[in-house]
Structure formats: C-alpha cells, structure tokens
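User: I'm putting together notes for a lab meeting next week and I want to include a structural view of one of the chains we've been expressing. I don't have a solved structure, so I'd like a prediction I can at least talk through. The sequence is below, exactly as it appears in our construct file.
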Amino acid sequence: MNILANLSNIIIPLLIFYIVAYGISAHVNVYDEFLEGARSGMQTVISIAPTMIGLMIAVGVLRASGFLDFVGNLCNRLFSGADIPAPIMPLLLIKMFSSSAATGLVLDIFKEYGPDSQTGLLTSLIMSSTETIFYTMSVYFMAAKIKKTRYTLPGALVATLAGVIASFLIVRFL
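Assistant: Thanks for the context. Below is the predicted structure for the 174-residue chain, given as structure tokens.
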C-alpha cells in the first residue's frame, strides 16, 4: 500500500516530464506552446466568467430567500410515498446548478443528522453520483460556442435520475 501512495505522488511530475520530453523530441517549442495554451485558457475563463457569476448569484438568492426549502417541502409532499428525507430534495435541486452551494447544504445535513446516518449516507452518495448539469452545460457549451444542445439536457437529467435512484437503493440495502 505504501508503494501506491508513493507512486501517486510522482505520477503528475512524471507525466509533465514525459510531455515536455516528447515535445522536445518532436522539435516543438514547448515553452511557446505552453504560453499559447495558457493565453487561450485565460481567454476561456474571461468568456465564461459572466455565466459562472450569474449561476452563483442565482443559487445564492434562491437559497437565501427560502425558495429552495419551499420547493423541497412541496416536492416532499408530492413524493411522500417515496420515503425521501426532507433535506434531500433541496440538495437534489441545487446540485444540478452549483456544486459549491450543494456542498453547503451537505455540511448542514451532516451537522443536523451526522455523516453516518442514513440521511448522511444518502447525501454522500447523491453528491458523488450526480453532476452539476446546468453549470457544466453553460460553461462547456459557452467555451466551445455550441448553440444547439440537442439531447444533452434530457440525457443529463436521465443520468442524474439514475444516480439518485441508485443512491436510494444502495442506502436502503445497507
């Protein structure tokens, strides 16, 4: 096990060394290519910053206004037969928009119920088996200048639903 821990410490430096050595052997000006890539990366960050800021503000407003709690309670009434813990529904909704806001909800759930409780385990599984759909779509599609998303949203929602159902089943059988 100690070998694996040490191996993981040197993988990234070895990978960087390999890339630089390969570039030099292919007669590529590695430093200039690095600078061009960094410049392009900074332009991408600048172009997607308004979208990221808008998403973060929207999530903050929804959370601070109590709207997420309202929607969570409404959904709990609709799915009362599904035996979904009350704090899970707002987490499911917010996770689709912001992972950092969802992490704040996770910490609140852990403080109230504990990480080893059934609700805590379900929270952990949901966080690890779902994606920030709208954030990911907005950032990557804006960066790649994609206008038509076609089946991305329905596919992502189905995948998220599958992750949530699997999380519930795993916790139920533990």
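A couple of points you could mention at the meeting. The CA atoms of residues 15 and 21 lie 10 Å apart. The chain is about 80% helix and 0% strand.

User: Perfect, that's what I needed.
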